[in-house]
Structure formats: C-alpha cells, structure tokens
Design brief:
CATH superfamily of the largest domain in chain A: ABC transporter type 1, transmembrane domain
Helix content of chain B: 55-70%
CATH topology of the largest domain in chain A: ABC transporter transmembrane region fold
Number of domains of chain A: 2
CATH architecture of the largest domain in chain B: Up-down Bundle
Radius of gyration of chain B: 36 Å
Structural class of chain B: alpha/beta
Strand content of chain A: 5-15%
CATH topology of the largest domain in chain B: ABC transporter transmembrane region fold
Structural class of chain A: alpha/beta
Number of domains of chain B: 3
Number of helices of chain A: 20
CATH class of the largest domain in chain B: Mainly Alpha
Oligomer: heterodimer
CATH superfamily of the largest domain in chain B: ABC transporter type 1, transmembrane domain
Order of helices and strands of chain A: HHHHHHHHHHEEEHEEHEHHHHEHEHEEHH
Largest sheet of chain B: 6 strands, mixed
Number of helices of chain B: 25
CATH architecture of the largest domain in chain A: Up-down Bundle
Shape of chain A: elongated
Chain lengths: ~575, ~600
C-alpha cells in the first residue's frame, strides 16, 4: 500500500512521508516504554512503603511529557504532509489529465475521472492523514508493551508474544480476501449506478410501457445484487474480525491463567502479575481497533489503485524537436487506426489541398468522426501518417497544431459562464468588438436578444440552459473568433430543426470561407458545396470524387442519397430497394 | 438542504424507514449491550484477583480460580454477542439500503417527467447510490459505537463510584479538561474557517467537473497549458484553506487528544491513587479498578469527536433522500374513467415550466381519430411542450387535455399509456436484449410481433447481422449507431400499437435509411390512428391532414396545408423563410418538386 502510495505521489514525497511514519513509530514506542514505569509504581503502591512510589511516578510523568512532545510533533508533521500530499496530488493529477489525449476521455470515463479527481483524492489523502497515526500506534504500542513484559517476566512475555504472528497473519489474510470482495462490491455498485442512470433517462419510455407501478426488473436485479454483495462481504469479513478478537481474548485469558498460576505457585510477585495484566488489558483495545482501521485503509487503497491507473496512462508522446508546418494542406497516408480491438480506419489515404473543402459521407459507424479526430491528434494512428502542411502531426508541437485548427463538434460543451465568456474562449485576447463581430456572424445576436440577460446570460453547466441549436451557434462563433486556417466540422447541423439549421448554416459558410475544410456531412446541401467528396464505409475510402461525378457513377454514394428520395409506397413490402 | 437544525426531521424520517426492521434493530442493540457489558467481566476478574491476592493471610485458591473462569467466560460471551450483533447489523443495513433504493426507484417512476428536466441525472443517481450508502454508519455502526461510548462508561462509572467516589472524580478530570477545550473549537474564527473549508471544497469539485467535461473544448481552443489553470487555482485555494483550518484547530485538537490519551489518564489515576494510598484513605487493591476501567471513561468524548463528521454527512444524505421521497407525484384518479374513442382535445390549455413564464398560452385543438396533425413553428414556440402534454409528462396549469371525452387526470395511467405512444428525439436504449428494448412498452409481446415491428422500422436485417440476433444485448454484444438506435425506438412505438401516436419527427435522422423507415412507417399507420407530429420535413407537412402553426405558445394558423399555403399567411411566410434551406437537398438531386408538392 505504501508502495502504491509513493508511486502515485511521486518520489519527491517519499522522504517526508518516511520521516512522518518514523515519528509516529517513535511516538508509539515512547508510549509503550512509558508503561514500563507503571510496574515499579504499582509495586511500591501495593507494597508496604507506598511513599516510595513518588519518584517513579515523577519518572512516569517525565516519560509522558516526552511522549506528549513527540506526539504533538508527529501530529503536526502528519497534518503538514497531508496538505503537501494533497497539493502535490492535485497538481500531479491536473497536469497529467491535461496531457492525456482527448480520445482517452470516453463518456464513461468523464464521470469516473470527475469523481476521482475531486472526492477521490481528498478521501485517499484524508484517510492517510487521519488513519496512519492510529494504525502505526495500534501496531507498535502493543508490540512495545510485549517487549516490556518480556523484560519483567519472560514467561508472561512469551505468552503474549504468541499473539504477534497470529494477529499479523489474520490481518494479512483478511486484507487479501477482502480485496476481492471489495472489488466485487464496487463492481456491483458501479453496475447499479449505471442502471439507475438508465432508469432515469428512460423514464418517458418506461412509463409509456406502463411500467410505473411494477418494479423495473433490470434495475431491481442490480439493486438486489448490491445487497447480496454487501451481505457476502459482511460474511467474509466476519472470520477475520472474529479471529482477531478471539486471538486477542485467548491470549488475555492465557495471561490471566498463567499470571494467576505464577502468582500462586511460582515466583512472580503479586504486583508484577497485576501490572502485567493491566498492561495486557491496555494492549487489547488498540489491537481490536485494527479491524476497523484495516477496513478504512482498504477503502483508501482502492482509490489509490484507480489514481495509479490514471497516472500511469501514457500521454501522447511529444516531439523532441517540433516542426512548424508552413502550409495548411491535409493528408492521410495509408492510415490504420484501431480502437478497442476494432479497426476503425482501415488503410485510408486521401488529401485536401490548402483552401479546399472535403466532405466525408458514409453510413453511421463508418469512421467519419474518427478521421477528424486523427487530424486534431485526439489519438495517434496505429500505422501510416497523418500530415498537416506536409508535417506528421506527431512532429508538431500540440499547441501549434491546435492553434491551426478550429473544430465544431456535433455535441457542444459550454462552460458554466456567460455567452460572451464562452465565445471568447476561441481567442482570449480578442477585443470586445471582435467577439461581437464573431457572435453576429454566427447569428448569435438573435439568441442574446431573446434572453433576459442578453450577452451576460448564463448558459448553465454544460450549456444546459440553451437549446441545441443555440449551443451550436455559440460554438461556431467561438470557431470564427479563433480564425484558424483549418476548419473541422462534425455533422454540425444534424441535431437542428430547419430554422436553426438555416441560421447555423450561414455562420458555417462564413467560417469556411478561404480555409481548408473537412466536414462530416449527411445533408446533401453541405456535400454539394464541397470540392471533393469521399464515401467512407467500414473505415475504408470506397469512392472519391466530386458530388456530380459520384452521382453519375451510380455506385454506393448514389445509392446512399437515392434511398432518401424514393417515394414511399403505402405497402411496405412492395418498397423495393 | 437540511442544516444542523433539521436533525430531528432526519431522525424522524430515519425512524420511519427503520420501522419495519424494528425487531432486528432491537436485537442488534441488545446483543451489543450484553456483549459490551460481558467485556467488563475479565477486567473485573483482574480486580477481584488483585483483591484476593493482596489480602493478608492465606490465599483463597478456589476463589481465585472461580474469578479466572468468570473472566474467561465473560470474554467468550462478549465475542459471540458482539460478533452476532455486528453481523445482524450489517445484514440489516443491506436490507434497509435495498428498501430505500426500491422506494426511491418507485418514487422516481412516479414523479412528473417535468421534474427531471430541472435536475441532473448524475445528482439523482448519487441520491440512489452514494447517499443511501451513507446511511450505513447509522445502522451498522452507530448502535455498537453508542453502546461502547455510553453504556460501558456509564456502567463503569457507577461501579467506580461504589469503590471510591474521590478517586472516581479524579479519574474524570481528563474528561472535564477535554470538554473544557470544546468551546475553543467553536469560536467564530474556527467556525468561519470551517465554512471557508466547505466552500473551497465545493469549488474544487465543480472546477474539476468543468475541467474534465470540457477537456475537448479546452484542448481544441485553450491550449493544454492554460487548460487546467482554473483547476489548479481551485486546488491551491482549497489546500490553503485546509491549511488555515488545520492550523487554527491543530493545537486544540492535539491538546484534546493528549488529555484523552491512555498514558495521560493513567498518570492522573496513579497520582490520585498514590496520594490517597499514602494518606491511608484508599486500600491499594481498590486502585486496580481505576487503572482498568478508568481509561474507558474517556470514550464518550472521543466518540463525539470521531463520529461527528460521518454522522453529519449521513444526516445530509438522509435529507437529500427524504427530499426526493417528498416530491408530489402526478395525482392518480381514485376512480379511473374509461375513454370513449380516441378523439383528443386540448381545451384552452396553458402551461409554463416556471411561475411567470407561460410556454403555452391558451391552446384549443382537436385531433380527430384517423388523421395526421402536423405542428410547425419556430424554435421556442412550444411545440415540444405541447406534444408532451399528451402522454401527461406534465399537467396543464389551466384548461384540460381530453382523450375520448375524459380528462387525462381522470384516466388511470395504465389506460393512458395503452392509448398514447410516442417517439421523441431523445432515443434511450437500455443495456438489455434488442427484443426487450423493442418490447419495452409491451413486456409480454410475442417474438413474431417484435420482428414485424422491427421489419417495419427497417432494422430487422441489422439485428440479424448481430451475433445473437434479437437476443444480442445492446452495448455488450452489439453497438448501434445513432440511426439504428432511432429505428429501434421507432419499432418500439410501432409495437406498442397505441391508437394515439405522438411523434417528434426526429429533426434529422442519422442516416437516410432511418429517414426512409420513419416515412414508411407513417405512411403505413395513416388512416388507423390519431397522429400528432412535430414536423420538420416538407413531405410530412404536405401529407398531413391538418397543419397547426405555433408561435410563442399560441396557434396562429390552422388548416389543410394547401389551403394555408394559398392563404399566404403566417404559415406561408414561415415556409418561405426556410424553404431555401431545406429545398436544396431536393433540388440538388435533380428532382424539383412541382406545384403538386402540397396536394
């Protein structure tokens, strides 16, 4: 666990962390040793001259003062390392997340990473800050006390020592068996969360099916699975907890019996016997608390493991000596790209001369959006080369590459802020006039006129307060403001009604003027205005040429458009294709 | 959001939730009490052992061994009872959580659909998941902790008083000292620091969500170096606040910890004991119980500090759960009335999502059975809201929606959903088999019917291509494209076979095949059903029996499409305004529509 921790934190924290653990250990040892002085104190108090206890008692007080000082220092050190770790962790994670390729952020990952980076880090670090000291103390103090016992009476000490390997073995084996249960449980929780989200999003449909009254089976099953997993993990935690308690109590009983025997028949003084029993009772509580602490530490371990996975994901390599492309033509040279064991782009070659427009057409799932993502280097190719201005995108500084490209996505994400702030993101140093001009060109002024707060209207998280078309206009204004020589458009108008589409189209026309454009399209009008069209299917370029050429050819492309133009017969069976 | 003042409300709702499990819960507590008290036996055995051994004169050996056996038995009892209590507690916890989650699921299946639109799915999922889990300490740990924190110290205290009241008071000094330190942690400065800490924590969560969610935008526009500055600033800000908070509180906390630590308590007891023994006021053997039980007296204070955060968090979670459970569902009629026929009428319907902003301002509309009514209008005119009133996602604020002569509010929800089917833009497929997805609205449909609907929706061939055909699980065995998902949704509505069909003509279909499938389906259904469609395509509008032109929540024109066009009013102008945008597709294909495009 400490090893994972250090790997996640980075080496620079190893030293201070070790120092803190050492301090905590010293504190625990000091506590254990100070108890040694209780033996002479009690011997005197139980003896005939109780006054003689005072010097020992003063000694005990001194020892506790040392313990108190050590404890204070180690507590403070724990707090400090805790905050330092927290800061370090956030920075490390933030830096790393910023360097990971956009392609890494799948939809399911977004949620997971958000939770991990906000709550997860804090949970893991606070567990370390709060539980490390109790854990060290629960292990070390009893061990020291056993040492003290050995010094006073080897028989009693030895009997106590028996507990050490058993407790250690139980701790380790419980840890192992619980790790599997915890993983299982987490899996079930995850599954159930997915089902809940599905259930919520499918409400309209489910209600249409009249499933408002009966339990929704898919969800209910997964909720039951959660309960079963929790029951299983409770039952499998039981042997460990019972075993630990049993061991501790059996050893205490043994000490009680042995002490009594030695006091009655052996040579152990009554005071020593009683003191050792008092100390043994003192050991029991911290040892029993190990079960609890162990459980909490395991929780932190699973968060750490997830952090470790994220941090060990390799970002896309950056060129040691980046090359600045001088032109803005685009080229795919025998590109192969695989994702999740599926070949998405299969040996595709095509080129777009500077200032020309290429339309990519094809059935859904053909790999159209992936082509755009490869150009912007959201992923790296598995074979072949993607070039911008004749330079391999892997040899271009990512900042330089992104500065050349304006992308308008199908799904627009807006930041929680005003419309103006979101537009300005395209070029933060733009003047107000430039921002307004871009917004007007994207016909965003119509939107701001309607909103009560106009330009200062808040768009809500993710842009939730605007409609799809309105968000799209913001994103086009942003791209216009960026004024990049290469424009990538991903089915921009597909989610819009005709009115919004008309508005957005005007903006798009302005955006494309004089630039190198690749657009994924499914509306014939967009395609018609492109210089060239490629028809993509199964990741391959099936046909290539101008719109008219391809239509005349009567191949896949022509079929693709024809199907939407065939008049519909009232008898479905007779609709020949 | 309940603050600390809502504690009793939380307790009440927890009480209600626990009522069915009262017996198990009582068993948990009773077993815990017996176990904890039995745990005192070995300590008392040591005390008795000391008394017997320290007595002058010959040792009563039988008594000694009896004491030892009683101690050992006490330990055994403690082991069995606490383990049983803990196991029952955890299993009970699992049951309570399951009950809670089922209640929440049932509730979420009843609340008005409109309620969802103002909430994030993730937040609600968190209530059902994490918030319910946060109840765990309440049920699984609190009984045990409370017993060991209060019952055991109380029993010890009573016993110690009977032994020697002076030394008992001395033993309590660490507790008094610790309690005296508590006000220092509640000074205005400390409270302010705590609030700042909470605030900074909220900021870091929201900035990380933004950072991660918007990563593609940030990378495409912001440049990756500037991208996470906001996140790091929030992180630094948070750490600084945390530091300040820790700094303010660490000395007091450390002092408290020290005062309550076993060595310190032991020192106090020994000093007090030594003073009393040397003064001849205490028998040496009577010191033993204080050494053994005295340490336990600090437990309540320690427990208060420790469990407080968790309990507070659990309280907040329960608050969120009860908030969801308290939402009023759309009222169900006590005596459902059966509709006569499937004529749909909207009578002076007004509706708004917010108090003062009406989206629909007095809609009067009749949908005759067997006709197609197309709704057109600019975005924001209320089209989607209007069609959502038919499946009763919302109730109108004024006026009524009537189906077959019966107000929807007097129709049972079963009857309503049997009568009204809909296809909206937002396609949701479940991670279940293709067949189950299609049959979602008709759970007991025959496979034949499912296949027929799939054929009609032009998705049958695609389904057969997937590895397990109709049994392929979507998202696991087979991934569907947007267009394919739309066609599944269409098949779903076709299978439902409801006499009233509400359709938000998917504004743009992911591919031409889907577009064709919808057109074909509409053509097939016509004449049998009452169809209300938000129309985007020229053909749909042209084929409709009635066109309703909506503007700013009012019907501005209504009639047969050709008539309206000829009238040259609002509809004609609207059509003209985006005719150029849409007609291009058609013209480009070289098939210019003639004047007969509106029959």
């Amino acid at each position: 666990m400490i090893r994972t921790l250090l790997r996640v934190l980075g080496r620079e924290y190893a030293q201070p962390l070790r120092r803190t653990v050492a301090l905590m250990t010293m504190t625990a040892v000091a506590e254990g040793l100070s108890y040694a002085l209780v033996v002479p104190v009690l011997r005197e108090l139980f003896g005939n001259t109780p006054e003689n206890a005072w010097p020992w008692l003063i000694g005990f007080g001194g020892a506790i003062a040392v313990y108190a000082a050590l404890r204070y220092i180690s507590d403070l050190s724990g707090f400090h390392i805790g905050t330092a770790l927290l800061r370090g962790m956030y920075h490390r994670l933030g830096d790393h997340l910023a360097r990971l390729p956009v392609g890494w952020y799948s939809t399911s990952r977004l949620g997971e990473v958000s939770v991990l980076a906000s709550r997860g880090v804090l949970d893991a670090m606070s567990v370390i800050a709060h539980l490390l000291a109790p854990f060290v103390s629960a292990c070390v103090t009893p061990l020291t006390i056993v040492g003290v016992m050995l010094v006073f009476d080897w028989q009693m000490g030895l009997a106590a020592l028996v507990a050490v390997p058993i407790v250690a073995a139980i701790q380790i084996s419980t840890g192992r068996s619980m790790a599997a249960e915890d993983a299982e449980r987490e899996e079930r929780d995850h599954e159930a969360t997915g089902r809940v989200i599905e259930f919520l999003q499918a409400q309209p449909v489910l209600r249409a099916g009249g499933r408002t009254t009966e339990r929704f089976r898919l969800l209910d099953d997964s909720l039951q699975e959660v309960e079963r997993a929790s029951r299983r993990s409770t039952l499998s935690a039981l042997p460990g907890a019972v075993g630990l308690t049993l061991t501790v109590q059996a050893v205490f009983t043994a000490l009680l019996v042995l002490g009594t025997y030695l006091a009655l028949y052996g040579d152990l003084g009554v005071a020593e016997t009683l003191t050792i029993l008092v100390l043994a009772a003192r050991c029991a509580d911290p040892l029993l608390s190990l079960t609890d602490i162990g459980g909490k530490l395991r929780g932190a371990r699973s968060v750490l493991a997830r952090l470790d996975t994220v941090l060990s994901t390799e970002p896309l390599p950056e060129a040691a000596e980046p090359i600045r492309p001088l032109r803005h033509d685009l080229e795919f040279d025998s590109v192969v790209f695989r994702h999740d064991d599926r070949t998405v782009i299969d040996n595709a070659s095509l080129s777009v001369p500077q200032g020309q427009r290429l339309a990519v057409v094809g059935p859904s799932g053909a790999g159209k959006s992936t082509l755009l993502q490869l150009l912007a280097r959201f992923y790296d190719v598995d074979a072949g080369t993607v070039r911008v201005g004749g330079v391999d995108v892997r040899d271009i500084d990512p900042e330089v590459l992104m500065a050349r490209i304006a992308i308008v996505f199908q799904n627009v994400y807006l930041f929680d802020g005003t419309i103006e702030e979101n537009v300005r993101l395209g070029r933060p140093d733009a003047t107000d006039a430039e921002v307004r001009a871009a917004a007007t060109a994207a016909r965003l002024d119509e939107v701001t006129e309607r909103l009560p707060d106009g330009w200062a209207a808040n768009v809500g998280e993710g842009g939730a307060l605007l409609s799809g078309g309105e968000r799209q206009r913001v994103s086009i204004a942003r791209a216009l403001l960026k004024n990049a020589p290469i424009v990538l458009l991903d089915e921009v108008t597909s989610a819009l009604d005709p009115v919004n589409e008309a508005a957005v189209h005007e903006g798009i026309e302005r955006l494309m003027a004089g630039r190198t454009v690749v657009t994924v399209a499914h509306r014939m009008r967009t395609v018609q205005r492109a210089d060239r069209v490629v028809f993509l299917d199964g990741g391959r370029v099936v046909e290539e040429g101008s719109h008219e050429e391809l239509l005349r050819r009567g191949g896949r492309y022509a079929d693709f458009w024809n199907i939407s133009m065939v008049p519909v017969s009232r008898e479905p069976e007779s609709t020949g294709q | 959001m309940p603050s600390s003042g809502a504690g009793s409300a939380v307790q009440q709702s927890m009480g209600r939730l626990l009522r069915p499990h009262v017996r198990s819960f009582a068993a948990v507590v009773i077993l815990q009490v017996i176990g904890a008290l039995a745990g005192l036996a070995p300590l008392l055995a040591v005390v008795e052992l000391g008394r017997t051994l320290l007595e002058s004169g010959p040792v009563d050996r039988d008594r000694v061994w009896t004491v030892v056996i009683v101690g050992a038995v006490g330990l055994l009892v403690r082991l069995v009872f606490t383990a049983a209590s803990s196991a029952i507690g955890h299993i009970l916890d699992g049951k309570v959580q399951l009950t809670l989650r089922r209640q929440l699921a049932a509730q979420l299946g009843r609340v008005p659909i409109g309620w969802f639109s103002r909430r994030r799915t993730g937040e609600l999922a968190k209530v059902v998941g994490e918030d319910v889990s946060a109840v765990h300490p309440f049920i699984a740990h609190t009984p045990g902790e409370l017993v060991s924190a209060f019952v055991v110290p109380l029993a010890s205290l009573v016993y110690l008083f009977t032994v020697d009241w002076r030394l008992t008071l001395i033993t309590l000094t660490p507790v008094v000292l610790a309690v005296a330190l508590v006000p220092l942690m509640m000074t205005p400065a400390r409270v302010r620091e705590q609030e700042e800490f909470d605030g900074a924590m909220g900021r870091i969560s929201s900035s990380v969500v933004e950072f991660v969610q918007g990563i593609s935008v940030v990378k495409a526009f912001g440049g990756s170096k500037r991208a996470h500055r906001k996140f790091l600033t929030a992180a630094d800000d948070f750490v600084d606040t945390f530091n300040r908070w820790v700094h303010g509180i660490s000395r007091i906390a450390a002092g408290m910890q020290l005062v309550l630590s076993p060595p310190f308590v032991l020192l106090v007891v020994l000093i007090g004991g030594a003073a009393l023994i040397t003064g001849g006021d205490l028998a040496p053997a009577d010191l033993l119980p204080f050494l053994l039980l005295g340490l336990g007296l600090t437990a309540p204070v320690a427990a208060l500090g420790h469990g407080f955060d968790e309990m507070q968090a659990a309280g907040r979670a329960v608050g969120r759960i009860t908030d969801v459970l308290a939402v009023e569902p759309l009222p169900e009629p006590s005596h459902p009335v059966a509709p006569q026929g499937y004529r749909v009428e909207l009578r002076d319907v007004r509706f708004g999502y917010e108090e003062d902003r009406e989206v629909l301002r007095g809609i009067d509309l009749v949908l005759e059975p067997g006709t197609v009514t197309a709704i057109v209008g600019p975005s924001g005119s209320g089209k989607s809201t209007l069609v959502q009133l038919l499946p009763r996602f919302f109730d109108p604020i004024h006026g009524s929606v009537v189906l077959g002569g019966v107000d929807l509010r007097e129709l049972g929800s079963r009857e309503l959903y049997r009568s009204v089917a809909f296809v909206f833009q937002d396609v949701r497929l479940l991670r279940a088999s293709v067949a189950d997805n299609i049959a979602l609205a008709v759970p007991h449909a025959d496979r034949e019917d499912v296949v027929r609907a799939a054929r009609l929706a032009n998705i049958h061939d695609r389904i057969l291509e997937s590895p397990r055909g109709y049994d392929s699980v979507i998202g696991e065995d087979v991934g569907l494209s947007g267009g394919e998902a739309q066609r599944i949704a269409l098949a779903r509505a076709l299978l439902a076979d409801a006499p009233v069909l509400v359709l938000d003509e998917a504004t743009a279909f992911a591919d031409p095949q889907t577009e064709q499938a919808v057109r074909r389906a509409l053509a097939t259904l016509e004449g049998e059903r009452t169809i209300l469609v938000i129309a985007h395509r020229l053909e749909t509008i042209a084929d409709a029996d009635t066109v309703v032109m909506l503007e700013e929540g009012r019907i501005v024109e209504q009639g047969r499409p050709a008539e309206l066009l000829a009238r040259g009013g609002r509809f004609a102008a609207f059509r003209q305004s985006h005719h150029s945008a849409v007609a291009d597709d058609v013209e480009a294909h070289g098939r210019v529509l003639q004047g007969d495009e509106f029959r």
